[in-house]
Design the sequence.
């Protein structure tokens, strides 16, 4: 008899999701699905609003990476105003984005994922969390929390608050960084660097221990997409889109923001609120791609600073083409913290970040504007169409986690195939499915912003796991 | 000039006979919450936030349009008044679509301040969620009817101080809308001098500077009072 296994809810991710695993007659895994059961509606209820308000409104999509939405939205606004923001304003925006990289990546590594690595996948779920980590290794936990605080404080020093600072606006930013802010950042940088180096060496030291996880946590060939700079360098805010395949070949390069729809399509499935973006030239679902830290390192040819460049090349040495192991998202995230800290150090010594010439003023000069930025979790698109007055008529948001949707489903399936045999579910398997998903650091509240009536399926399961009833809404 | 003596909250005070309870209270350092009242413009008693109790009169009276009387015993604070004030603010929030977090006026809004001062933590009334438009056809300013509380400050300031009378009301009750000229988009209102007094007068984020982003609108209402005082006292004539 076929059987369905449901894991609900999935813990230690941002948002709510459900996983169902379908077994065949022989009790072998037939397929697995990662359901996103959240529903937001931003693309619909933003209609009719002035586009100037959008950085403030869309920031509310998420409390972990509001900065990405603020920046993506402000960039779309720049395009509608038809202004090029000043070099000073752009440096300030970049600084805030890097602060966010540090805080978000530190959160993912120390608060959400480290409990798995350090306490063990099969340790008691009740203590396999950041509190358990604080108990087991208070010094490391404290360092991780302070690293996140460092990133959060950069955001706060620039924008006035850690969460949802309405600071980046169409045309630039509201204000520069103060001397006190610069001093604070410079003062805390050495400690942040030390913690980042420690985490990276810690992870590298554990690589041998996690050979199985590296091989089965979503190890499959796929495309990767991210922004890259003009010379193919690592980029987190400017530049153009690049697609590379599993072997590292470049399939599309320097695609401008306004042209993103020539390379990206969005598919929908009836069983999830999350859309399935794909690379258009390869079609759906073959054109599924991954975004985020792993994709950025796979797309980038080099880093901007010597220390980050060394780490990038060492990372790239793990595979002959692209690094395809989803588990190594964790590794890539730590390399990016290093790169972010190096660049923050450069920026705080640049006099431009104290300039007050940071905001361009203009009217509506384009009816459509697309803003792309690299959020910690991957590429983020804000695409607005406005009327002559600047009121929104159409909004399309493509967020990072959405683009990892296909890959997350494959990851769940791969892990399930490895760990599920027969009708009994071992606790260890549940932990690993969750951990597999957590590699992507998914942000589900972000990615399900669209509105519309979608079919929903609810499965009722008995204690023994057999399906008692299924209700479907067409 | 006749003087009336009365008590407000037990405090014996004297006031000129043409003064309102609100004016007398303020002169004596007694604060009464208001919303539609705006120094420099006429009082209309629209918002009812300044309701006070007067001994011997069963109903509550709006302090901004009630003249002082000899021997009046006024109470500005009681359980009943607090309950009504809170109810009024809750009703204001329920009537339109006030989303503070994404509002241009967040942090500088009189309605928001009122909600905090009356201790409103939620609205007991169902939100009406009306469909309201945003008009940013004007070159410099915009009006978002979602945030309008129909206080009429813009109407009075435009008529009484600027003398343009661009703004007025259309409809009745909850369906009332602030309109420019004969219900044309603000950008097409020929009478508008673009002086911006309505922007400064508006207590919420309903009227704002075009291009404002979240929480950055700050208004200076003292300028309106300054203009009126200077005009009345002929301060510009040497």
Sequence:
């Amino acid at each position: 008899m076929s059987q369905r296994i449901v894991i609900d809810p999935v813990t230690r991710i941002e948002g709510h999701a459900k996983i169902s695993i379908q077994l065949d007659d022989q009790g072998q895994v037939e397929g697995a699905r990662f359901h996103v059961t959240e529903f937001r509606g931003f693309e619909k209820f933003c209609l009719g609003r002035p586009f100037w308000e959008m950085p403030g409104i869309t920031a509310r999509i998420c409390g972990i990476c509001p900065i990405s939405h603020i920046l993506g939205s402000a960039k779309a606004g720049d395009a509608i105003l038809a202004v090029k923001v000043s070099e000073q304003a752009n440096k300030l925006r970049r600084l805030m984005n890097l602060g966010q990289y540090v805080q978000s990546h530190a959160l993912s590594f120390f608060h959400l994922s480290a409990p798995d690595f350090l306490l063990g996948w099969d340790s008691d779920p009740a203590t396999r969390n950041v509190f358990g980590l604080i108990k087991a290794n208070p010094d490391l936990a404290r360092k991780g929390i302070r690293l996140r605080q460092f990133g959060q404080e950069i955001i706060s020093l620039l924008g006035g608050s850690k969460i949802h600072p309405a600071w980046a606006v169409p045309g630039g930013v509201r204000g520069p960084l103060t001397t006190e802010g610069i001093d604070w950042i410079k003062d805390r940088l050495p400690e942040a660097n030390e913690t980042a180096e420690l985490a990276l060496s810690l992870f590298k030291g554990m690589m041998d221990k996690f050979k199985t996880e590296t091989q089965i946590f979503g190890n499959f060939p796929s495309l990767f997409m991210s922004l890259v700079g003009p010379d193919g360098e690592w980029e987190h805010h400017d530049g153009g889109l690049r697609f590379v395949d599993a072997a590292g070949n470049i399939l599309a390069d320097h695609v401008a923001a306004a042209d993103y729809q020539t390379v990206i399509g969005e598919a929908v499935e009836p069983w999830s609120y999350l859309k399935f973006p794909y690379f258009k030239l390869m079609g759906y679902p073959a054109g599924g791609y991954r975004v985020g830290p792993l994709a950025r390192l796979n797309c980038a040819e080099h880093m901007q600073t010597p220390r980050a460049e060394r780490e990038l090349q060492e990372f790239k040495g793990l595979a002959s083409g692209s690094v395809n192991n989803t588990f190594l998202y964790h590794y890539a995230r730590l390399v990016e913290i290093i790169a972010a800290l190096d660049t923050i150090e450069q920026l705080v010594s640049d006099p431009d970040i104290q300039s007050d010439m940071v905001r361009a003023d203009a009217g509506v000069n384009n009816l459509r504007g697309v803003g792309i930025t690299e959020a910690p979790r991957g590429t983020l698109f804000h695409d607005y169409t406005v009327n002559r007055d600047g009121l929104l008529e159409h909004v399309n948001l493509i967020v990072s986690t959405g683009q990892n949707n296909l890959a997350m489903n494959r990851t769940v399936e791969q892990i399930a195939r490895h760990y599920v045999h027969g009708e009994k579910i071992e606790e260890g398997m549940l932990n690993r499915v969750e951990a597999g998903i957590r590699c992507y650091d998914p942000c589900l509240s972000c990615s399900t912003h669209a509105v519309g009536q979608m079919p929903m399926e609810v499965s009722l399961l008995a204690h023994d796991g057999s399906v008692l009833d299924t209700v479907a809404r067409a | 000039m006749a003087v009336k003596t009365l008590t407000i909250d037990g405090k014996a005070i004297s006031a000129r006979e043409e003064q309102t309870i609100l004016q007398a209270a303020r002169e004596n350092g007694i604060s009464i919450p208001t919303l539609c009242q705006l120094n420099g413009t006429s009082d209309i008693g629209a918002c009812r936030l300044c309701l006070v109790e007067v001994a011997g009169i069963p109903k509550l009276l709006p302090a901004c349009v009630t003249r002082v009387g000899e021997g009046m015993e006024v109470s500005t604070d009681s359980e009943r008044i607090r309950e009504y004030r809170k109810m009024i603010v809750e009703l204001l929030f329920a009537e339109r679509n006030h989303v503070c977090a994404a509002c241009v006026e967040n942090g500088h809004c009189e309605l928001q301040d009122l909600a905090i001062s009356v201790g409103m933590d939620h609205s007991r009334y169902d939100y009406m969620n009306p469909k309201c438009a945003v008009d940013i056809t004007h070159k410099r300013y915009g009006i978002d009817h979602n945030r309008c509380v129909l206080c009429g400050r813009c109407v009075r300031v435009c008529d009484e101080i600027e003398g343009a009378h661009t703004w007025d009301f259309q409809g009745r009750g909850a369906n009332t809308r602030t309109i420019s000229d004969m219900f044309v988009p603000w950008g097409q209102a020929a009478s508008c001098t673009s002086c911006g007094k309505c922007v400064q007068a508006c207590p919420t984020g309903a009227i704002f500077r075009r291009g404002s982003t979240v929480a950055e609108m700050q208004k200076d209402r003292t300028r309106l009072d300054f203009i009126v005082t200077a005009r009345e006292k002929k301060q510009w004539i040497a």
